[in-house]
UniProtKB/TrEMBL annotation:
Transmembrane segments: none annotated. One of its GO terms (molecular function) is DNA-binding transcription factor activity. Residues 86-110 are annotated as: Disordered. GO terms for biological process: DNA-templated transcription. This is LysR family transcriptional regulator. It holds the Pfam family HTH_1. Residues 1-56 form the HTH lysR-type domain. Belongs to the LysR transcriptional regulatory family.
Length: 110
């Protein structure tokens, strides 16, 4: 999931440095995540120059689905939180709480 999140941020914020700033990690960590995703998919997603990445058609296609998927995941986390509150659950949940959903939503729509 972190790999997809890094990919989403690079696409959304236009590069490694901006994505890293938003994710509070180093540009190198984001770059490693992108390379890991490319290795998993066995496809190059970006044209690289010395100082930048430019998404190719495959990256644009993947972004469409990753964006929608993260949006759905955020919605699902909110629904679980709403359900938990309605039921008055007294025990701790192992699922990410509303803070995670709010963070994802904020990053996805800003």
């Amino acid at each position: 999931l972190n790999t997809l999140w890094a990919f989403w941020a690079v696409m959304r914020y236009g590069g490694l440095v901006n994505a890293a700033r938003e994710l509070h990690v180093s540009p190198q960590a984001v770059g490693q995540s992108i390379k890991h995703l490319e290795n998993i998919l066995q496809v190059q997603l970006f044209e690289r120059t010395q100082r930048s990445l430019h998404p190719n058609k495959e990256a644009e296609l993947l972004f469409h689905y990753v964006d929608a998927g993260l949006d759905e995941l955020s919605y699902g986390l909110r629904q679980v939180d709403i359900s938990k509150r309605r039921l008055g659950s007294q025990h701790e949940s192992e699922l990410p709480g509303p803070e995670s959903a709010a963070r994802w939503r904020r990053h996805m729509r800003t």
